[in-house]
Amino acid sequence: MAEETLPGTADDDGPDSIVLHVDMDCFYAACERLREPELEGEPVVVGMGYEPGEGHGAVATASYEAREFGVESAQPISTALERLPRIDDLGPDDDPAAAGHYRTVDLEFYKSVAADVKAILHDCADVVREVSIDEAYLDVTDRTAWDLAASGDRTLAEGFARYVKQRIAREVGVAASIGVAPNMSTAKIASDFDKPDGLVVVRPGEVRSFLAPISVEEVHGVGPVTARKLGSLGIDTAGDLAEADASVLEAEFGSRGRELHERARGYDDRAVTPTGRPKSLSRESAFTDPRDDIEDKREVVRALAADVADRARSRGAMYRTIGIKVVVPPFDINTRATSLSGPVDDPELVESVALDLLDAEFAETTVRKLGVRVSKLSFADADQSSLDGWESAEAGETGGDGDERVSDEREATAGDDGDDEPPNTGGEAPSRGGQSSLVEFD
Asked: Which alpha helices (H) appear in 265-342, and where do they start and end?
């Protein structure tokens, strides 16, 4: 990562990295809307542990429409439903906008949607750090630049981030808010600045002025308790924190005090570090309109299989499981797989197995999206001890892989070599007719 700074960049901003923080908006509620499109625009509450007539259970996610009625995350579901009655409880003359829909958390479904999102992120960046089911950091320093686009009204980095947002919306159907900045902490703050579906770019040299007016509690790493202590010192904004005496902060909070002081000044030298080696390599393609013609489906599977096998070979990876993913309207996800007796590198076998799995069960099925995956990977450059440890960890997550129906515990997605990078980061994302671009799936 280059250590030079662009002209006009303040030293406190640190190196001119380009970091994206991608945060999915009301993710659980957005997933529920994927399989129930009629929930679009309606107040949606997602929670767990609720039984009618009992006070147990808490809200996991509330859509923005539900929040307008005072529903919040971690709120008792019974309280939320009092503020936001179910649609079935309303009379025929009541306004539907005042109604709410409660859905129980379906984590496996949410993981499958998150895998589709994160596959796009890996496709768009060489370094991705997944920090939760709906949140990730991307280092795109080598993919774009802080230079102005040809139009002169925005940076190339902004065009790149807009492309990422549009791919997520087009290929998965959910909205993401993205913050773009020279470091991780500022990018995270920026992603939360204009929700939902926001895009906020903080250029080098602008970090400190961007941070100065925000509440000190919004500084990455400052929680409510620390914010109250800072308030007792007369520090209410990030600007106050940046101007404070670092030695006083260190005396009050230890080394963390100096770290918060640096972040308020716009300096955060943490590198975006990836979350380990991939456990699978996969590609998927969505049809513009659902298809039932078997030859259309077979043609797509052949292309996906060739691409996945080629990527595995380019990375020196062998695989012991070959599988497909079939998404049936509206959003019913089906995965099937075949386990092999040992690791192989065989493109023809990938195609043959994938087609057999498709023909066996989905020949006449109307499908929205198809995918091909190879998993249980081993790498030529891995020593045996590290490989054993990695595979043991994977087995603990998935419960083994001896059945043709893949475990519902989704594996982490692989990174990509960047062959689908936007051709012009200064413009809008390129439009695509027919099939969407190839992306990974998990």
From this structure: 294-314
Is residue 51 annotated as a catalytic residue, yes or no? no
In DSSP terms, 178 is beta-bridged to 22, 199
Which of 135, 284, 351, 411 is labelled catalytic? 135
Greatest alpha-carbon pair distance for the chain in Å reads 71
Cα(218)–Cα(179) distance, integer angstroms: 14
Q: Residue 23 annotated as binding? A: yes
pLDDT in tens, 358-393: 999 999 999 998 999 999 988 876 543 333 322 333
pLDDT digits (tens, 9 = 90+) for 58-117: 899 999 999 998 999 888 888 888 887 666 666 666 665 556 788 999 999 999 899 889
DSSP 326-390: EEETTTEEEEEEEEEEEEE--HHHHHHHHHHHHHHHHTT--EEEEEEEEES-EETT--HHHHHHH
**What fold is seen in the domain 1-27+107-276?**
Alpha-Beta Plaits (3.30.70)
- The answer as to CATH 3.20.20.300 being correct for domain 43-99 is no
CATH topology of domain 280-398: Dna Ligase; domain 1 (3.30.1490)
